[in-house]
Amino acid sequence: MSAVITATGLWTPPESISNEELVASYNSYADKWNSEQAEAIAAGTAQALTHSSPEFIEKASGIKSRYVVSKEPLLDINIMAPHIPARGNDDLSLMAEIASHAGRDALTRAGRSAKDVDAVIVACSNLQRAYPAISIEVQNELGAGGFAFDMNVACASATFGIETARGLIASGQAKSVLVINPEICTGHINFKDRDGHFIFGDVATAVLIEHESRADDRGWNIIGSKLVTEFSNNIRNNFGYLNVCAPEDDGLNAKGLTDKLFRQRGRSVFKEVVPMVANLISDELANMGIEKSKIKRMWLHQANLNMNTLITKKVLGKDVDMVYAPVVLDEYANTSSAGSIIAFHKYSDDIAAGETALICAFGAGYSAGLVVLEKR
């Protein structure tokens, strides 16, 4: 394989919400709902909402805070959804804007200009629209050449994007591919759901993949990869452009639309995905003839601290310091496809030349993507 990751980029929203802030908002909403539904609750036709707590959230997920593109409306118990003003067709879309920020950061870190890029892939879990492709809008905004397209493989989108970029380079279609993961996850979460209101945050990441002839001695050789999918309804989001919103509906979380938002059967996901991912990593390393002990770092999808801890233990066969699988959940929460790339971006500088590491992302589908790297 002749593809090299030469740089990564990161854009973080300026506003953050702590667990304490989020819990205060949810508990106020729960009290209001319980008061309004008191008669139905007493009659047994409605169920009272129970309070959340920062301790519950951190124990369940490892999350302590999250960055968001629209803070105040999320905490307003009369809204509890992001309010993102509509932009004109001739204005840059929000998703293309944050994607461009991350893309420019990666290009700057690599010492490249947009004109060096032959292809742009926007790979994320929820696209702002069906068409024209967000990626083509980003291509135009950056001033890149070649071609662009969008792809969605849920939380595994970044790793699927990297492997797609490697394939484009191997086939001669491109020598430089910018894979960008803009995730506005707060747009598809139900903030009135105690079991899920804390999960997601917003962010954008980027990965520049180039043919080795363009790369210097920096970066990472892509020495192996593996993609797998297996259908499951345990993580699902039914909102899309075929859903019809009534004129009185106000945002994705409006009355009557909550059944279209993110939902998951958390226990089933944990039980099924952990062995799936651990086996994927172990089997592919064995196929490549790489001893597990030689892996210096695993940048895993950032969905749940307990899940990542168990995957790491199953792969390495023992309890290890989580420096081997760094976590950014405490600061960023789950950012879908961007999570493993944030961890890679922030915790990779200490890996020495010739050492081996891996990125592995997994999520709805089920989908899982593994990329094995060697430091140049």
Question: What's the SSE blueprint?
Answer:
Elements: E1 3-11, E2 15-18, H1 19-36, H2 38-43, H3 54-61, E3 65-68, H4 72-75, H5 94-110, E4 119-123, H6 134-142, E5 147-151, H7 157-171, E6 176-184, E7 202-211, E8 220-229, E9 235-236, E10 263-264, H8 266-288, E11 295-300, H9 305-316, H10 329-332, H11 339-346, E12 356-363, E13 367-375
Parallel strand pairs: 4-5, 4-6, 11-12
Antiparallel strand pairs: 1-7, 1-8, 2-3, 6-7, 8-13, 9-10, 12-13
Helix pairs in contact: 5-6, 8-9
- Number of DSSP E strands: 13
Q: What is the average per-residue confidence, as pLDDT, rounded to a whole number? A: 92
Helix-strand makeup class: alpha+beta
Determine the strand fraction and express it as a percent band.
15-25%
The largest sheet, given as strand count, sense and whether it forms a barrel, is: 9 strands, mixed
Question: What is the name of the CATH class of the domain at 222-375?
Answer: Alpha Beta
Strand order of the largest sheet: 5-4-6-7-1-8-13-12-11
Distance between the termini: 14 Å
- The stretches of 5 or more residues where confidence is low (pLDDT under 50) are 246-255
Can you write the helix and strand succession as a string? Answer: EEHHHEHHEHEHEEEEEHEHHHEE
| Count of separate DSSP helical elements | 11
